[in-house]
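Blinded run. Sample ID left blank on purpose so nobody reads anything into the name before looking at the predicted structure. Input follows.
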Amino acid sequence: MSSMEISQQNITGKPLVSIITIVLNGEKIIRRTMDSVFRQSYKNVEYIVIDGGSSDRTVSVIKEYETQLAFWRSEPDKGISDAFNKGIRRAKGEIIGLINAGDWYAPDALQQVVNTFVAEREVGVVCGALQFWKGTSKEYRCNSEPHLLEREMTVTHPSCFILSELYTKAGFYSDRYNYAMDYELLLRLKRQGAKFVSLDSILANMQHDGVSEANWKAALRETHRARTEILGCSFFSSIWYYYFLVVKRWSRIQLERLGMDRILHFYKNRIALVRKTK
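Blinded prediction complete.
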């Protein structure tokens, strides 16, 4: 048994699930996120909302749900990792899920996750598929492939649920990362021996607004740094593999920019490490 494999003797019956949402100026998108948590078929849930000091009406929306929340706070933070960690420190559940403002859960997501943790005693992380939407139309789904984490971020973070005791053992999200803090944590957990299970069902949803061109280079630099620090001397931590990822991502952006949908569809289904399917 590796160092991070654990006994789940306490994960029986109906364990408490802690869901954390972080938000900043999300008045137009947070309501759907919160509703998706409260409408879960699984009910033993505590919901925590961490607002980064919004200047719009986000806090007013949160207050509408105040009696249903286990905890909420609005104050400036030091970034995404800091906001995540604030919520995790407040969480009392045995299982923790993070769903950012704008994303939303499938109605039975938590029930599926709990069933998996209860049935498989040594599991530390449960993840699943993420459905992308363009407006009111389904765009494509992306499955989680944790066995490929050494190569890229191949787990869809909104569909990811982690045992709270793993945070205690392995540490929280690193504030040295601005874009790839979720990748760094998941790769760290995997290398330390945590057992992942990926469900072949959609657990969460996200609006797809095209590939972000603002921060993708910085994000790739951070994922490269995470592989270098955690994997050590490996092909996947080499500068050549990093350049390969840069070229691949740049190519995808150009296809989207040029509206070459047929080629882009081929790329997503045949070339991308994690296939995107309708």
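Unblinding after everyone has recorded impressions. The beta strands are 17-23, 45-51, 71-74, 95-98, 104-105, 123-134, 137-142, 161-163, 195-207, 276-277.
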